[in-house]
Structure to design on (310 residues):
């Protein structure tokens, strides 16, 4: 036994002389990473590149908000809204910039739109984008050992599906090498469509033809409006993954009604999930699109959430 221990000591000493001790060093601890400070102010470098091309041949772009500094920085993937039928990676620029300026690598991506392909095409894009970002984050000084997703409106719906069903074969249908999972560590959502059918019923009651049309073009076949409904997923007691959620909801939202959102939050908590939930009184569906104190408050809440969970 003494002979073996001496040989091991000699081997380690020789390794140190050759600069090989890193092979025996423990992995970098969370404490050694760049701590996310909501009050920090970083200069940003903004770049764009194609992250994939969809079946229709459209180039899906990623917009990268990279803090200037050594990092590694926590990573957030942004999924845009637009009622599944419109908008792109530019939709939430002010929110993305606010999160990134405090020291997060934020990457906003285009998603396939319903006129190109219905559900679950955009969820498949998001799943691929999450795996792609986990693999590529270090390119921009990002630390993807924990990665958050931010989703607005219909993008919040997509984010909830990724979190609830990270191993769904349909959502992960686009292959990506490396064995990475499409599972976010936490989700932040502004006015997410947490009850797809309830939202459709509200559109019918208000006779909002554009919203009715958007639903019918995305949920094909129509039954998928129930199958992909986060509220009904919980009510059916499906086997789900429960990640920490942050939901920011406008009190005057006539698109995704506060009562529907509150019901989802209650169901999520009853299922065992953690959900920070704030109703912004006097605010409509897309209040964060305009500068103001309530928009600043939403930014601050999201930054504080990242600081706790990244």
């Amino acid at each position: 036994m003494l002979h073996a221990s001496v040989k091991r000591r000699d081997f380690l000493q020789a390794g140190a002389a050759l600069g090989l001790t890193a092979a025996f060093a423990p992995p970098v601890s969370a404490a050694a990473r760049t701590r996310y400070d909501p009050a920090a102010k970083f200069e940003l470098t903004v770049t764009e590149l194609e992250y994939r091309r969809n079946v229709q041949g459209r180039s899906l772009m990623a917009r990268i908000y990279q803090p200037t500094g050594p990092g590694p920085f926590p990573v957030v993937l942004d999924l845009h809204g637009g009622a599944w039928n419109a908008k792109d990676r530019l939709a939430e620029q002010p929110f993305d910039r606010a999160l990134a300026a405090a020291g997060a690598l934020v990457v906003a991506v285009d998603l396939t739109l319903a006129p190109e392909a219905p559900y679950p095409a955009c969820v498949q894009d998001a799943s691929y984008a999450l795996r792609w970002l986990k693999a590529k984050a270090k390119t921009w000084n990002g630390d993807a050992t924990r990665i958050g997703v931010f989703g607005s409106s219909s993008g919040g719906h997509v984010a909830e599906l990724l979190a609830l069903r990270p191993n769904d074969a349909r959502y992960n249908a686009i292959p990506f090498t490396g064995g990475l999972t499409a599972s976010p560590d936490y989700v932040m959502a502004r006015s997410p469509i947490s009850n797809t059918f309830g939202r459709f019923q509200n559109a019918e009651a208000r006779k909002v033809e554009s919203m009715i049309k958007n639903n019918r073009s995305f949920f094909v076949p129509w039954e998928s409006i129930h199958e992909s409904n986060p509220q009904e997923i919980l009510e059916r007691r499906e086997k789900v993954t429960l990640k920490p959620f942050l939901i920011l909801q406008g009190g005057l939202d006539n698109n995704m009604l506060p009562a529907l959102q509150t019901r989802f939050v209650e169901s999520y908590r009853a299922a065992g999930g953690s959900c920070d939930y704030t109703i912004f009184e006097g605010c409509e569906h897309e209040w964060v699109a305009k500068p103001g104190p309530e928009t600043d408050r939403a930014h601050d809440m999201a930054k504080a959430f990242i600081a706790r969970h990244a």
Q: What stands out?
A: The chain has one domain: 44-309. The CA atoms of residues 23 and 228 lie 46 Å apart. Strands lie at 44-53, 59-67, 73-79, 105-109, 142-152, 186-190, 245-250, 275-280. Residues 1-31 have pLDDT under 50 and may be disordered.
